[in-house]
Amino acid sequence: LIDLKKELEELEKSQNGVKEKGLKFKEQIAVGFKSLDEICNTLDKQEKESSKLLQRITLLQSGGGDKSNDAVVEMKQKIQSIKTSIKQSKKTFTPETGGVFVRLFLGQVNVKHYREGERFRLKTEYEKFKFKTNPQFILFVALLFMFPSNSFITTSWQIWLLYYYVTLALRENILLVNGSSIRPWWIMHHYLSIAGALTNLLWPLSTSFTDLLPMMTMFSGAQGIVQILTNRYQQGQLYRMVAIGKANIMDVTSENMISDPGWTPSALFLLPFLLFVHCFQMYNGFVFLTYSYFKYHTYYIEWQVIACGLILVSLGIGNLVTTSNIYLNKWKS
Amino acid sequence: LIDLKKELEELEKSQNGVKEKGLKFKEQIAVGFKSLDEICNTLDKQEKESSKLLQRITLLQSGGGDKSNDAVVEMKQKIQSIKTSIKQSKKTFTPETGGVFVRLFLGQVNVKHYREGERFRLKTEYEKFKFKTNPQFILFVALLFMFPSNSFITTSWQIWLLYYYVTLALRENILLVNGSSIRPWWIMHHYLSIAGALTNLLWPLSTSFTDLLPMMTMFSGAQGIVQILTNRYQQGQLYRMVAIGKANIMDVTSENMISDPGWTPSALFLLPFLLFVHCFQMYNGFVFLTYSYFKYHTYYIEWQVIACGLILVSLGIGNLVTTSNIYLNKWKS
Ligand SMILES: CC(C)(COP(=O)(O)OP(=O)(O)OC[C@H]1O[C@@H](n2cnc3c(N)ncnc32)[C@H](O)[C@@H]1OP(=O)(O)O)[C@@H](O)C(=O)NCCC(=O)NCCS
Ligand SMILES: CC(C)(COP(=O)(O)OP(=O)(O)OC[C@H]1O[C@@H](n2cnc3c(N)ncnc32)[C@H](O)[C@@H]1OP(=O)(O)O)[C@@H](O)C(=O)NCCC(=O)NCCS
Asked: Which of B2, B10, B29, B108 to mutate to test the interface with A (most CBs of A within 10 A)?
């Protein structure tokens, strides 16, 4: 019993210790965020000042005074570099809500993470999510192939797609705030896909639907396979970053970090698959549109046919342009 | 020009100052979160220890030894109070993902906020969202009344509802992690509502739909009005908290804070409206079910009729039980 009493006393002591630590932690965090506010305020001020300075210098330049021209040009360059550095700092520090889409779901709250490693965690979680859902994607496609007229399967698939694209768009917007250099098009791509999934969901089990379903399923299958390949590539990138020790000094934004791995063999390997699937997507969209055009006089064509067609064509074009752009950049570097 | 040069130099200096501050901020945050990890680890250990101690004491008690019985009972109580205090500390400190639903959308990331005032901000954002969307809710109901057979309006309404309930469920789960004492039923309520909205979305424009739409619209109207009233009440609560200065020491979880305002006139005023709308909801569900029962032989009844009926009845019963419980608690206190 005395033994127990002693242990209880120790537990009480350690509990008081934790309570103190907790208070201290709150203080530390409060102090930290106060200095964050100061930093953000200073950055805002600096931004204004540098803009004013730039204006004045430009005025001076246009006003003549050729003797000091070299000095003026130099000053201008300096200011420009200061401005980009301010912008970068703002990206690292200023709290952000993550754009309209995130705001719609989470409200006007900060989604920028300041804890070391938390940003990298966001990214790995994102790729892990894709890794886990890719087999589901393929499974759905297989089921659609086997039971094309089962409305339970098609509807589940449509709802699943809606969820899939919403969560991807949410996560990518949050990643963007946390320093990812993901191109805006991929997010736009997911907004369009959300619209597509909704359109699909509203499509009754009509003749046009059953006519076009095999085509859609085939495209989805191709897409699923390409997604698995790109996911493998992106996860490889993450491992590479861990390996070269960049994941720990994380801050994706830190200036000395270039996320683009360049013209690597694995990137090159992906290229034909990507090009194929983008072209297939466009072709698919054209099939939808011509279908609606030629069958127009035969029977009633739902608006969903045209909407899906337009969405598919836009997605195909956008993807093609963006991918070409990415690979052009890789090639140049 | 010399003037400009001076200013530029100052700007550069101030920029270096900010950079230093930024590094310091990162350090502070890192140190803070390190001590958070320590706190969480200690809490885990304490939890295990206290459970072990409790076991040993219970063993001792059952083993007899009546002389020291009083002391043992006292010790037991002490441990119990330590355990609840540990639980509370864990709720304040341990990072959490916000449950399956939030995890589905945001991934396995921490959604607990540690910055002072941020939790209160979550809550005000939540109520502000309801405040802003209530008029939209009412507007949709009005449009449905006026154009009951316009499929564009009904479909928009169904998609809007789906979005509405998804974002509410997300926000409430995040609030829960951040110390709100919102009852789990209200979150369950929104999951069911999501299911209901999906069911509605999949409901074709059939006879059963047009038969039951006026009833649904009427109920939605009543719900919209009651929602405005409860939102006013909840916003009043928030103002009250700001007024008595509790919003600033925020931590909704802080032990000395009781969020329930008790048996107030404004809460009492709400009661009849709430009871009415809950009963109306149940009644509505029954109408759906009896409709599906009696029309079963007349024409084809979609599964949506039965699903919506069941969902409405469950919602009505759950709401009624929870509201009664809340008011019973208020009355007792
Ligand atoms: C071509 C591709 C593999 C190149 O990847 P990369 O070498 O990492 O390209 P970038 O340098 O432009 O990447 C910059 C950032 O954007 C991310 N990113 C690139 N493409 C992305 C995509 N489609 N979705 C999400 N994130 C993407 C990268 O992970 C990287 O993130 P980080 O800054 O957080 O590290 C990639 O753009 C891709 O996957 N494209 C095809 C996507 C597609 O079409 N999918 C649908 C199949 S039909
Ligand atoms: C009856 C009612 C007004 C009481 O509110 P209250 O006095 O704040 O009740 P509680 O003390 O139980 O509230 C505890 C917490 O849950 C929150 N809460 C209570 N009911 C909620 C609800 N329906 N939705 C979201 N949050 C709710 C409160 O804001 C409070 O939050 P906090 O801990 O972050 O401060 C409230 O429960 C309510 O609005 N109920 C009816 C909801 C409803 O049926 N809506 C649909 C209309 S058909």
From this structure: B29
Contacts for A40 with CB less than 8 Å, ≥ 6 apart: A90, A93, A94, A95
Mean pLDDT to the nearest integer, A296-305 = 79
User: Are the C-beta atoms of residues A112 and B113 closer than 8 Å to each other?
Assistant: no
Return the number of other C-beta atoms located less than 10 Å from residue B69's C-beta.
12
E strand intervals along chain B: none
Size of interface A-B (CB pairs under 8 A): 184
The interface residues of chain B toward chain A in range 40-69, judged by CB-CB distance below 8 A, are 42-43, 46, 49-50, 53, 56-57, 60, 65, 68
Q: What is the pLDDT of residues A184-200, one digit of tens each?
A: 999 999 999 999 999 99
Ligand 1 pocket test, candidate residues A113, A234, A277, most atoms within 8 A of CB? A234
Mean pLDDT of chain B: 87
Rounded Cα distance between A53 and A55, Å, is 5
ipTM of the complex: 0.89
CA-to-CA distance for B246 and A224, rounded, in angstroms?
52
Condensed to tens digits (0 to 9), the pLDDT of residues B111-160 reads: 999 887 888 889 999 999 999 999 999 999 999 999 988 889 999 999 99
